[in-house]
Amino acid sequence: MEITDLSFKEIGQVVITVSNGLDKHYTYRFRKASENKPVFISVKKMTLFDGATYDYLGVYSPDTRRVHLTKASVFADGSEQVKGVRWAIDKIAKPTTLPGHYTITKELVCRRCGHLLTTPESIASGYGPECEKKKTISRNSEKGNSSEK
Ligand SMILES: [Zn+2]
After folding, report:
1. 3-class SS at 28?
2. What is the CA(127)–ligand 1 centre distance, in A?
3. CA 148 to centroid of ligand 1, rounded, Å
4. Which of 38, 41, 47, 94 could disulfide-link 57, Cβ–Cβ 3.0 to 4.6 Å?
């Protein structure tokens, strides 16, 4: 399968799912709150109530394309989750045929609420239609928003 380069401009708003095509898959969210903030990686965890929560994994450096763990990381270096995201970044950086049934899928999500972006306009702006409106409003009122997760 073809993997598009993350181009790492969109890295602040992307969700990547790595699957071995059989019994395992991990979904990683790359989130960058603003231009000068680091990119945080977290791993999706399904809950009983079919909502998703994320466990913090570490920080991603777009310049070096490296993943660093920090004290707050809930995963150990060498864990499958950490190995998985490093593997995926490596594969995305140098597009190649993936072994076996492995797949890497990439989805863009809203920078504000994390919902999937579906329209070309949303993907270009990085915000869903609702958040695009709120973003304009909060910018006008200069209050920012504390509701951002
Ligand atoms: Zn949104």
Report:
1. strand
2. 5
3. 10
4. 41
pLDDT value for 112:
79
Single pTM value for the model: 0.74
User: What backbone torsions phi and psi does residue 53 show, to the nearest 5 degrees?
Assistant: -120, 165
CA of 20 to the centre of ligand 1 (A): 30
Residue ranges for the chain with pLDDT beneath 70: 1-12, 46-51, 138-149
**Could you tell me the residue ranges of all domains in the chain?**
10-108
Q: What is the dihedral of CA 5, 13, 105, 17, to 10 degrees?
A: 130
- Quick one: pLDDT at residue 99? 87
Cα distance between residue 60 and residue 104, in whole Å: 18
State the distance from the centre of ligand 1 to the C-alpha of 73, rounded, in angstroms. Answer: 26
The CB density around residue 86, as the number of other CB atoms within 10 Å, is 16
- Residue 36 CA to ligand 1 centre (angstroms): 21
User: Which among 41, 78, 79, 42 has a CA at the least distance from the CA of 62?
Assistant: 41
Sign of CA dihedral 74, 58, 72, 126: negative
What residues are neighbours of ligand 1 (ion), with CB under 5 Å? 110, 112-113, 128, 131
